[in-house]
Sequence to fold (255 residues):
Amino acid sequence: MRWSPLCRGAAPGINILSGLCSVTASLKIEGREGVRRAMDYKLPRAAESFITNLTGADADEVKKYVVEFRLNQEFQNSVEGKRSAFSQNRRSSWDYSIGAALGLVLYVICRRQKPRIVVETGVASGVSSSHILGALEQNKHGRLYSIDLPGWQEDRSGWLIPDYLRHRWHLVPGRSSDELKPLLRKVAAIDTFLHDSDHSYQNMLEEFQTAWKYLKSGGLLLAHNIDNNNAFSDFCRGNGLKGYSLANLGGIIKA
Ligand SMILES: C[S@@+](CC[C@H](N)C(=O)[O-])C[C@H]1O[C@@H](n2cnc3c(N)ncnc32)[C@H](O)[C@@H]1O
Fold:
């Protein structure tokens, strides 16, 4: 599998998100000045357009969710606490996650979309999972099912996920090629799918084809590291679908 670290400039177009690439530590709200900074913060235009294209949210709504996220100290403190405790003596897979920037984009999408069932493949530390779960918790609604083949440097898949969010999370250990179909049969219909597991062409295409059948009308297919190969664009072309991209994150709406 190829790893593509978000915040190390690996992907084309990543500079548009560079302002967002700080880890959560920099989001600490310190006094009135910290709150003002959180309130004044604006997503880069490309990120805002990506969210608007996929969800129909207008700029004011996007801004509302971004500020809400940046003011959420329970989330920031929990993630930062777990991250620093874990990575004291070793390299953390945080570096290979979807990253804080796209994590925030996932958060806003899930706040706007209010999904009932989200399925993702690829958890590692759980950056994407934490942001999705953070949104579901604010929505007071929804569950996240995550398939992950553990084994890399992790103690356990999703070690970063704040404890207060875990009641909405269901982990399915194993390969997506074995676990995705049975999981989707069990949950029957999904609102959001996120691919971030094995980024080989064949695995990506198979996950897209499988998840698409179970996506509800109005549902979203999201995929990380779409720049690894042509699977995302081939899937769009082969099915006559319009795909959107933000750096190396792709998204398609099911009509
Ligand atoms: C890029 S990391 C996921 C990062 C995560 N989405 C985040 O934002 O923190 C990829 C994860 O997929 C897992 N993985 C690799 N191949 C897989 C497969 N065939 N099926 C399921 N998970 C797989 C890896 O063990 C790793 O935990």
